[in-house]
Design a protein that fits this description.
Layout: E1 3-6, E2 12-15, E3 21-22, H1 23-30, E4 47-52, H2 62-65, H3 70-75, E5 77-79, E6 84-85, E7 89-92
Parallel strand pairs: 1-7
Antiparallel strand pairs: 1-2, 3-6, 4-5, 4-7
Bound molecules: FE2/S2 (inorganic) cluster.
FE2/S2 (inorganic) cluster binds at residues 36-39, 41-46, 79, 81.
């Protein structure tokens, strides 16, 4: 069974279904922690970096091209709601910005 490692979530490892499933769906189901809003390729919130296993995700979708540049794709960036997992991958994402009024680290 393929595995997804959520690096930004303390390296949490979760199983992925054998059938191709979106990275965001796996994250939601397994509490992986990838941020999202729309789930439909519109908002751009689910940008994430495939740090290992880029060969184990499917092809870039037209919706992703609205939010990411060729340079970002080359570096491994994808949108989790548009990216289907076919094998083992490790993924990270930018931490959310601090909320207004919260103390700075
Ligand atoms: S969650 Fe909105 S684009 Fe992926």
């Amino acid at each position: 069974m393929p595995q997804v490692t959520f690096l930004t979530n303390a390296g949490k490892v979760a199983p992925a279904p054998e059938e191709p499933t979106s990275l965001l769906r796996i994250s939601i189901r397994e509490k992986g922690g990838i941020p999202f809003k729309c789930g439909g390729g519109l908002c751009g919130t689910c940008k994430c970096l495939i740090e290992a296993g880029r060969e184990n995700v499917d092809a870039i979708k037209p919706k992703e091209r609205k939010h990411l540049s060729e340079e970002q794709f080359a570096a491994g960036w994808r949108m989790a709601c548009q990216t289907f997992v076919l094998g083992d991958v490790s993924v990270s994402w930018p931490p959310p910005p601090p909320k207004p009024g919260s103390p700075r680290p």
